[in-house]
Amino acid sequence: MLITGLGIFLVGSLVGTVVSAPGWVIAARTVMGLGAALIMPLALSVVPSLFGPGERTRAIGALSATSALGMPLGPIIGG
């Protein structure tokens, strides 16, 4: 599911870079949102299998911090 979400997000990103009409950009962003909806919960579920008990809390903290900062800062910096 994580790879599927990344693939959907990639397709939306690629389409968004080559289109010029606003409707197509909105459609590409919608596809990116669908991919991100698959990626976000699965990214957190992969952390315990990638990090040991000593590193797990730091990894979850870093993932949570980037999510918490990315949501309000993304539109401000990108817009």
General description of the model:
The longest helix is centred in the middle third of the chain and has 29 residues, at 22-50. This protein starts with a helix and ends with a helix. It is an all-alpha fold and 79 residues long. It is elongated, with a radius of gyration of 15 Å. The protein has one domain (2-73). It has 3 helices and no strands. The protein has helices spanning 2-18, 22-50, 53-78.
Tell me the total number of β-strands: 0
- What is the mean pLDDT? 90
- Low-pLDDT regions: none
Strand content: under 5%
What class would the helix/strand composition place it in? mainly alpha
Q: Determine the N-to-C terminus distance.
A: 30 Å
Shape, per Cα inertia axes: elongated
Rg over alpha carbons: 15 Å
Concise synopsis of the structure shown:
With about 80 residues, the chain is mainly alpha-helical.
Structural key phrases:
mainly alpha; 91% helix; elongated; 79 residues; 3 helices
